[in-house]
Amino acid sequence: MKIRPVILIPFLWLALFFLVPLTIVVRLAFSESAQARPPYRPAFAWAEGWPVWLEKAKSLSLGNFEAMLEETLYIDALLSSAGLAATGTALVLLIAYPLAYAIARAPRDRRVLLLTLVVVPFWTSFLIRIYAWIALLKPEGLINYALKSFGLIDAPLPLFGNHLAIVIGIAYSYLPFMVLPLYATLEKLDWSLEEAARDLGATRLRAFWRVTFPQTLRGLIVGILLVFVPALGEFIIPDLLGGSDTLMIGKVMWSEFFGNRDWPMAAALAMLLLCLLAIPLVILRMLEDRRETA
Amino acid sequence: MGTQGVTGRPPLVSIEHVSQSFGSVRAVEDVSLTICEGEFFALLGPSGSGKTSLMRMIAGFGEPDRGRILLAGEHVTRVPPHKRPVNMMFQNYALFPHLNVFENVAFGLREEGVPKPERSARVDEALRLVQMQSCAARRTQALSGGQKQRVALARAIVKRPKLLLLDEPLAALDRRLREETQEELKHLQKSLGIAFLVVTHDQDEAMMMADRIAVMSAGRVLQIGTPADLYERPVSRAVARFIGDANVIEPEIRAHLDGRALVAVDGTPFEIATGSVRDFAIGVRPEKIRVLEPYVSVPGSVTLDASVEQRLYRGDVTELRVRTAHHVWRAAILNASRRTGFMPEPGERIRIAFAPDDAMVLPE
């Protein structure tokens, strides 16, 4: 079989920017932290070579992973991250689906404009946009100020420095990642199918639910993954919008790495997160394969 | 013209002075027609003639700006599609890709709330009617064009509608399958007793299948009638040209007398029955024109000197393009008569003749 050189480019890319950093992280995760520079005692030295590495692998120090499971802080952080990411993803979905649907059904010449409007905010810095949300959400911020001056509330609503602020931040930041795959799926749909369903006795809503929605599942799953996965490890949003007591795995990793200078623990946490995220992806892949062969 | 059903059956659908515009485009203009129970009715016209818009209004997709639609005596102009006793077979079949054949056909019954045992019995029966019962568990993507068409048909008849709408039902099929399916559709319609309304741009299809045809153009109905009516007694130049071929000639009208007129073509006078019509063209079907050797004349016929410009062999007939003093004509010679008959070469001088009775009067 002849392999064309073009195909090597993505492999090279993956090797360079995924496999190499991953190896470094794995190596870190099995090391011990130390008062040194860099602050760890490597489990494997690059110079030792294969035979020594294999020998060492049999008696690996799982200390970091054991500590991770014993210390409830990490598990709590993980669970709370998952909860916040899931809530945020659900909110994104509620906003993105109708939006994508409306854009897909708009006249053809207007769709590009509408899509651009969804994406345009993302041309400015992420950090600046999150700072802007602080100005909106804080107790003396724009939203509370407006509500107060209309006489709708007496005391400012607790919009900032809590889980609500994080969910809003996630919903805002990841909207396009849900809108775009949903739009791509919806745009290809044949609308006469919805008409056929209505002709056969379904109301508009039933026609959507029984005909359109099932056909968009693939785009929906892609969107959910694109939002949920990065939201789970999100650091900036909880750091800026969440309170000091918010526990998210991204924040914990940050403090392990920079606060405690415990690089091996941070690396072990990153590995755990990676493994946990890989499980649903693998299951999904298997389900898809089965459906295609069915 | 012809808003009353002529088949002697009670009316099922009455369309009364219906108009519809999309922006500045007038899709349907003041259309009135009646479809009778158990009738096979065709809306025939070129694309953009308003036939699809009219059908969609009957299905409930799109409301008329003016006029009303009655279905079995009930005013349904503003009734939503899911509440109308009408089902439609879509042009691209619109089968649900995420459901298999059985589930596609069962869709409408499920929406109606038909209990499961009855549902599956009725789906089986519908699939049997279109000879697709062996494919019930198949995915729709795996079906051929003809099979998709059958499934779409089964899905549309399974709810036993009073009227079945078929939007270009055969357009996606190849020629041979199309002809077979025409006969099957006709047969199915008679055995089900459901009224069918077919929208088509194909005049052969309409002529083959329909009891009556409404010829549409630019949003208006030009003429409604049986296939024979339309072919033998078209009321306008447009219908004469659209249904079959016709030589449409503007004659010199010399005199009117007692419902007859004296006209002349290329200076050759003859008399035809015109009724009260004063201004008209005449239409002569190519197969009604006799092709003669020069200097031959046929008593009682209009005979004109001509020359052959072109000869086209078309299998069953040979078509001649001939020129007389002021007109160009098409004449068809049946190839079955070729051995005995006269077959001129291009450039040859000939004569053509037609009986005055074969000249159709086209007032519009």
How would you explain this protein's 3D organization?
The complex is a heterodimer of chains A (294) and B (364). In chain A, 73% of the residues lie in helices and 1% in strands. Chain A has 14 helices and 2 strands; from the N terminus they run αββααααααααααααα. The model of chain A has no long low-confidence stretch (mean pLDDT 87). Chain B has 2 domains: 11-242, Rossmann fold (3-Layer(aba) Sandwich); 248-362, OB fold (Dihydrolipoamide Acetyltransferase, E2P). Chain B is built from 8 helices and 21 strands. Chain B has helices at residues 51-59, 101-112, 116-129, 145-157, 175-192, 203-209, 227-232, 237-242, and strands at residues 11-22, 25-36, 40-44, 66-71, 74-75, 86-89, 163-167, 195-200, 212-217, 220-225, 247-249, 252-257, 260-265, 268-273, 281-284, 290-292, 302-313, 317-323, 328-334, 349-354, 360-362. Chain B has a 6-stranded mixed β-sheet, sandwiched between helices. In chain B, a hairpin with a 2-residue loop joins β13 and β14. Chain A binds chain B through residues 190, 192-193, 195-203, 206, 210-211, 214-215, and chain B through 59-61, 80-82, 86-88, 90, 92, 94, 96-98, 107-108, 111-112, 155, 159.
SSE layout and pairing:
The complex is a heterodimer of chains A (294) and B (364).
Chain A: H1 8-29, E1 32-33, E2 40-41, H2 50-58, H3 63-70, H4 72-105, H5 108-119, H6 126-137, H7 142-149, H8 163-187, H9 192-199, H10 204-215, H11 217-232, H12 236-241, H13 249-259, H14 263-293
Antiparallel strand pairs in A: 1-2
Chain B: E1 11-22, E2 25-36, E3 40-44, H1 51-59, E4 66-71, E5 74-75, E6 86-89, H2 101-112, H3 116-129, H4 145-157, E7 163-167, H5 175-192, E8 195-200, H6 203-209, E9 212-217, E10 220-225, H7 227-232, H8 237-242, E11 247-249, E12 252-257, E13 260-265, E14 268-273, E15 281-284, E16 290-292, E17 302-313, E18 317-323, E19 328-334, E20 349-354, E21 360-362
Helix pairs in contact in B: 2-3, 2-4, 3-4
